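Weekly structure sync - notes
Attendees: PM, LS, DV (DV joined late)
Agenda: review two folding runs queued last week.

Item 1: First target. Sequence and structure tokens pasted below for the record.
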Amino acid sequence: MNSQWLIVACLAAALAQGQTKPAKATGYTPPRTADGQPDLQGIWNNATITALERPPSLAGKAFFTPAEAAAFEKLTALQNNRDERGPDGATDVAGAYNQAWFDRGTKVVGTLRTSLIVDPPEGKIPYNEAAQKRLAAAVDYTRAHPADGPENLTLQDRCLVWATAGPPMLPGPYNDNYQIFQGPGYVAIVVEMIHDVRVIPTDGRPHLPDSVRLWRGDSRGHWEGNTLVVETTNFNGKSHFRGATEKMHLIERFTRTAADTLTYEFTVDDPATFAKPWTASIPMVKSDGPIYEYACHEGNYAVPGILAGARLQEKKLAESGRK
């Protein structure tokens, strides 16, 4: 505990020292594929401890100094250590996996930004008033009906969709690996988590009819210089990315900015949920791999266990005469 307080003190002191500027563009020219497109192929990893939204403790501060970043990384490593299981059995079980299973990264992003969101400047998702009310009602409903049936459980618990798969693709607690393949007219992205594959046409074909709605939407790509730009529409509204509806419109940009770095940026627009579009930027680092299969459903005892536990609780409440 003493070491934790020491790191907190160091971080607090560092926060008073100001902030750095973003890194300048390197002017890197990526290699080309056989058909002349920028070569984005390979295995990339986006693990980072930088949060999507800026934490309240860093409000008004867009960038860490190097000293702040080092202190933040040490503090986060202590706070995220899942081997600190707690004093009793219930706390231990609530901790789920131990530290060996996690690979969320140990560093903030190289730009030293305090959030992955770069616009708006405050680093927060700009929810509109209607969305705030809708999301609050959804939270209340979930608390009242945590496990009536499997449909009440999260998409992650049900092995349907993870935020790592997206789109947009966000870092997760583990399995932050992606493999990009390119061919004439197509780019494919293999996502390690739940073994998803995004196949993105780049041959100029139109989007699917509005009546066709998909879990990951309908993606179409084109090249702007060295950047792959992907537009995704036709979401089915079930993945609810950060509360978005089926009307979410997504623009992703993939730019190889160094031999070992792929800069991934995305802009989300959904007037039903957000007061204005917002943008995040995530660096992806080249990895030797390989990518191993992530089997989510196989041996997934969490869903039947959660539902069985809920039924047991209901039975006990009924036997006690309470409602």
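Item 2: Second target, run right after the first with the same settings.
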Amino acid sequence: MQLLFEHASVTDSTNAELARRIASGALHAPFCLSADEQTAGRGRRGRSWLNTEGALMMSLCVPLDGIACELWPLLGFSAALGVHSAVSGFLCNTFVKWPNDVVVIKNGGQRKLCGILSELVQDPSGAPYAVIGIGLNVNCASVPDGLMQPATSLSIELGYELDIGALRSRIAYGVFGEIAKTEADAAALILRFCERCSTLGRRVTARALSGEVICEGEAVRIASDGTLIIKTEAGERSVAAADVSIRDPGAGNG
């Protein structure tokens, strides 16, 4: 697969920029856009993305023509596994967290290393594309306190800095490789995600965007459509979109 790369010093949002190019008909092929700074970066569920010096901020354009629409909700899992594969070669105590974060587990707690935002966009002909935004803390000497989920960076954990450009290429090709595997066998994707998932087997709280608690219980499995199944006192609940925090004693929050 031929994958084109572009790097900008400043943009409002790498996701927004790729979405504009797709919507205008200017972009049709697999593409990776990265930036040193985003002035209006976005995270999941409409939240703003906090710029951190030394972070890798990138977005991928993924043409969806030929990919069954029922697989589209799983692309965030593919992206998380692609990132996990790239960083676990440096740091073995990394895991994926439902639905698509990458975290480091250390001393019984977990800290966020990477966040992923997947969006659907159409070109002028109506052809569908996914724009997958990836924000990975790489060479950040420190991370802010008071975040909704405690964070860390590769350099903090490793004690040395990494080549961000090389990591960007490794992640981009890794994500597209995982997407190809998803097309071939979606059930195997779910299994790989579950094997690396820090959420399963834990007591969790699922909250709506408003902060209202949806349910509490044990995260027991991930369904074929990517929803998280939580076993509560009233029975099993299927959660499709929520902030899920781990509440095991000694496991840390996140």
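Discussion on item 2: The radius of gyration is 18 Å.
Action: LS to circulate a short write-up before next sync.
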